[in-house]
């Protein structure tokens, strides 16, 4: 097999991986984890998808003018594992969303909790039980490590 025939498949794989990597972003460059805000409004879009579940709510800004907020949260797999489905939220439903705003102040937030008009609280934690189990296993491994003996100085 020639070098040229190997380069094309490798270049294709790299371009596919690079494209998917740019489609998914890290939390901290976009959202301010040190601040929490809340927005109350009418749900106009709910997409139970990966890599992040997306919602849109119509609300009002601080001056009372209509505003549309984009709300992002953890992925579909996390929410489905917690019992969510396509009917967990209904379009037209009034909700209050608590979460982290963007660093830029745009009309976008990362949801941590959704409260429905009837008072039902939908928790949207970025830490699932699976991650907590992995963390617990890591802590056990770290605590059971045997520290190397101190070297004995030659006499």
Textual characterization of the structure:
Helix content is 27%, strand content 29%. It has 155 residues and is α+β, with helices and mostly antiparallel strands. It has a five-stranded mixed beta barrel with strand order 1-2-3-5-4. The termini are far apart. It has a domain at 37-142: OB fold (Dihydrolipoamide Acetyltransferase, E2P) (Beta Barrel), CATH 2.40.50. The longest helix is centred in the N-terminal third of the chain and has 21 residues, at 3-23.
Task: Write a brief caption for the model.
This protein is of the alpha+beta class and 155 residues long. The chain is 27% helix and 29% strand.
Strand order of the largest sheet: 1-2-3-5-4
Radius of gyration: 23 Å
SS elements, strand count: 6
Oligomer: single chain
CATH class of the domain at 37-142: Mainly Beta
CATH topology name of the domain at 37-142, in short, is: OB fold (Dihydrolipoamide Acetyltransferase, E2P)
Unreliable segments of 5+ consecutive residues: 11-24
Distance between the termini: 61 Å
Helix and strand succession? HEEEHEEEH
The major beta sheet can be summarized as:
5 strands, mixed, barrel
In one word, what is the shape?
Answer: elongated
**Number of helix segments?**
3
**In what range is the share of β-strand residues?**
25-35%
- Report the helical percentage: 25-40%
């Amino acid at each position: 097999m020639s070098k040229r025939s190997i380069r094309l498949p490798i270049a294709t794989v790299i371009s596919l991986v690079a494209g998917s990597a740019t489609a998914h972003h890290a939390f901290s460059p976009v959202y301010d984890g040190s601040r929490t805000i809340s927005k109350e409004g009418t749900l106009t879009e709910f997409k139970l998808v990966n890599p992040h579940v997306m919602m849109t709510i119509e609300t009002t800004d601080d001056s009372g003018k209509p505003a549309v907020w984009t709300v992002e949260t953890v992925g579909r797999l996390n929410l489905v594992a917690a019992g969510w489905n396509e009917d967990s939220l209904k379009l037209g439903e009034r909700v209050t969303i608590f979460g982290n705003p963007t660093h830029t102040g745009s009309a976008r937030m990362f949801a941590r909790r959704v409260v429905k008009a009837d008072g039902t609280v939908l928790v949207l934690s970025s830490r699932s039980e699976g991650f907590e189990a992995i963390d617990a296993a890591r802590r056990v491994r770290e605590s059971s490590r045997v520290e190397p003996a101190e070297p004995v100085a030659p006499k």
